[in-house]
Design goal:
Layout lengths: L1 E5 L4 H12 L3 E6 L12 E5 L5 H10 L4 E4 L10 H21 L5 E7 L25 H15 L7 E7 L1 E3 L9 H7 L2 E5 L5 E2 L1 E3 H12 L6 E5 L5 E2 H4 L4 E5 L1 H13 L10 H5 L7 H7 L7 H15 L3
Parallel strand pairs: 1-2, 1-4, 2-3, 4-5, 5-6, 6-11, 7-10, 8-13
Antiparallel strand pairs: 9-12
Helix pairs in contact: 2-3, 3-4
Length: 317
């Protein structure tokens, strides 16, 4: 196996790069930069490349004799420049897939989509399956994921190129190295909001479960199709942060306030995220669990607790 990971300098890309390179897999990280922490990774090679550069991507895949591609390179943070966000998320994803398709050594393409693609809606059921309608609402990140999925599954790819599409919930864990993050917000903020008097339901998958499941997928020559990537559990914000003071607050007013701050560029939180906060998305992992007879190491709650403890020790919280 020779593995290429786009977005290798992000949180998920980083821990997958380290995990597989430590196991002796030749890993090629593709991103615009590589942090110094990756210099110690065994069997890891960094290639600077914009994912919109299909020609260079194809050259990298060919030169490195890549057999498996994991595509993670998206703009996670909301952008004020919508055309730029669309260009990177959509055109970049298309370029990576075309490059993989045109490099005959590549036999498997793993695309990290998002559970947010189902949309934050008041009538969301518990345990959304892969067959549920995709209604990403106004969240641009999820809208772009839907467009990319539609392109991938309508594309006439090689018969020997397997496509695995993973709709993942929020991944958390001990190796998170960025500032902030949802765990820090839940742990550090003294106040929480109950939008329209409703608690938010959350799903967190621990990075150790992500590593194990991706390893099973990469070693499966026949796997193909779409799977939810999330634990068989969920938790409310009040259960995760019982010491916080939760205040009922109108969702429309909250979105109006966030919109003003966003337009004034005072915060990095887009008003389009409000529906996701107000209406939790809980997806069912049954399809993936059944395929690999998999039992999760962590529930949503234990993943959160373990992450808090680890990040306290690492002084990243």
């Amino acid at each position: 196996m020779r593995l290429a990971i786009t977005g290798s300098n992000g949180y998920v890309g980083n821990f997958l790069s380290q995990y597989f390179s430590d196991k002796g897999v030749h890993v090629v990280g593709i991103d615009l930069s590589s942090d110094k922490r990756q210099q110690s990774f065994l069997n890891f090679k960094f290639c600077k490349c914009d994912v919109r550069n299909e020609t260079l991507l194809r050259q990298i895949f060919s030169d490195e004799k890549i057999t498996h591609v994991i595509h993670l390179a998206y703009l996670m943070e909301p952008q004020h420049n919508r055309s730029f966000e669309d260009d990177v998320d959509i055109n970049g994803s298309i370029a990576v897939f075309r490059a993989a398709h045109n490099c005959l050594s590549v036999k498997q393409f793993v695309h990290f989509s998002s559970a947010s693609i189902y949309g934050g809606w008041k009538n969301n059921p518990l345990w959304i399956s892969e067959e549920h309608p995709l209604r990403p609402r106004d969240w641009v990140y999820a809208i772009n994921k839907k467009k990319v999925e539609e392109f991938y599954f309508s594309f006439s790819r090689r018969k020997d190129l397997k496509l695995v599409n993973l709709r993942m919930c929020t991944a958390i864990g001990h190796s998170y190295f960025k500032k902030g993050g949802v765990v820090k917000t839940l742990y550090s903020s003294p106040l929480g909001l109950l939008l329209d008097c409703k608690d938010t339901l959350l799903q967190f998958i621990h990075e150790d479960d992500v590593k194990r499941l991706i390893e099973l997928i990469l070693n499966d020559k026949s796997v193909d199709g779409t799977f939810n990537l999330a634990p068989d559990s969920y938790a409310s914000t009040r259960k995760l942060s019982p010491k916080r003071l939760f205040i009922p607050f109108p969702k429309k007013l909250f979105k109006f306030i966030i919109s003003i701050w966003w337009n004034l560029r005072l915060i990095g939180i887009s008003p389009t995220s409000v529906n996701l906060v107000a209406h939790g998305i809980v997806v069912s992992p049954k399809k993936l669990m059944k395929k690999y007879d998999y039992e999760f190491l962590h529930s949503t709650k234990s993943a959160y607790d373990a992450t808090v403890n680890a990040r306290k020790t690492n002084e990243t919280l």
